[in-house]
Amino acid sequence: MRYRKLGKTGMDVSVIGLGTWQMGNGSYWNANLDDRESIKTIRTAVDHGVNLIDTAHVYGAGHSEEVVGKAVQEIGRDKVILTTKVGIWYEPDGEYNEATKCLKCDERVVMTQIEQSLKRLRTDYLDFYQIHYAGTTPIEESTAAMQKLVMQGKIRHWGVSNYNYEQLEKVLSLGYVCSYQPQYSLLFRDNQKKIDLCARNNVGVLTYGSIAGGILSGKYRSKEDLPKDGRGGTYPYYQGEAFEKTMELLKTLDEVANAHNCPVSQVAVNWVIQQPGITTALVGMKSPAQAIANASAADWMLTDEELRLINQTHDKLFGVPER
């Protein structure tokens, strides 16, 4: 495993991080993971060098945090860098579903959700806390709420996720942010300018969607193989012309994977963590075997020639990405 400093925090985080969305067993991706298996998966990932675990208050109505909390209690709090997210709010008298969701991060939301998250995670502090979406709360107000948590000792640092460029510029101007979490992969580079902005300000970047919702794992090779869940609405590569082009790109990734005797997913993850400005690629892991395979992506690196080949193939199929 390789490690990098997370922005200005001084914390060394693994270049492969564990994303735990599916461990929440929410309905969006029809996840139905056994909690005991998820705990084994987390333990295995840590045993193989992963020290960053990312979750969120909203994943499965807090269920992901509960699973992570049980695993961390067994592993040891000092063995992991723990982060969760705040800012998707459901009124206490509302049902926990998309219809009642709103995006805000005022002091009431922050102070309520931090206590719930700490309890579920079985810890009295977070290494860093992330605002899930900017939402409707003025950035100055959410910044003040997060800084209050730092002063209370409940979080050591904080960052943001899913901010647009103007929102990110604003929050960086206030001088507090340690990290930014965008969607980013070989197939999705729309957030590149924001990543460059973070690099100029020494802000860590944690990518999600690093294998484009699973399609860069090589698991799905025909439309008949595609999962019947909601990921097609999040990732456009599961349909139409984009799917066909992705299948062509996978042929090049197959060549590279064969040369390294590794799964295709490791090629896709390696591409991400070898891009300038990226600190960690967050990757979902559903089993101990998958945890070992994904963590092992950090055991080797793509050559300059392989990076050029992958980029040239991508650009020929999809066009040159904007910088």
TrEMBL record:
Coiled-coil regions listed: none
NADP-dependent oxidoreductase domain segment(s) = 16-312
Q: Name one GO cellular component term.
A: cytosol
- Taken from the record, one Pfam family name reads Aldo_ket_red
Give the signal sequence positions: none
Q: Which UniProt keywords apply?
A: Oxidoreductase
Q: Provide any one GO MF term from the record.
A: oxidoreductase activity
- Its recorded name reads Aldo/keto reductase
Native source species: Candidatus Pullichristensenella excrementigallinarum
